[in-house]
Write a structure and sequence with these properties.
The protein is mainly α. Helix content is 69%, strand content 0%. It has three helices and no strands. It has helices at residues 2-15, 19-48, 50-58. It is elongated and about 50 Å long.
Length: 77
């Protein structure tokens, strides 16, 4: 969801030719990245342990995947 919000702010910055909106997109991205890295992810690591670490190793923080993440041992084939 946040990737979409950031892209929307960037699109507004381009459409309105607004350096201020571009700056806001950069600040917004940086603040969210810092929050995820130093607050949210450590909490998820404590809560879910190795399962979350494996998930984190396979899934990018900002770039969505074309195929859903499948934890080991859940293949139906």
């Amino acid at each position: 969801m946040l990737s979409s919000v950031i892209l929307l702010i960037l699109a507004e910055a381009v459409a309105l030719n607004s350096p201020l909106l571009l700056l806001w997109a950069i600040v917004f991205s940086l603040l969210n990245t810092l929050y995820f890295k130093f607050v949210e992810e450590p909490g998820l690591e404590r809560r879910f342990g190795g399962d979350y670490l494996r998930y984190k190793a396979k899934v990018s923080r900002w770039v969505p995947r074309f195929r859903p993440y499948e934890p080991p041992g859940t293949n139906d084939s």
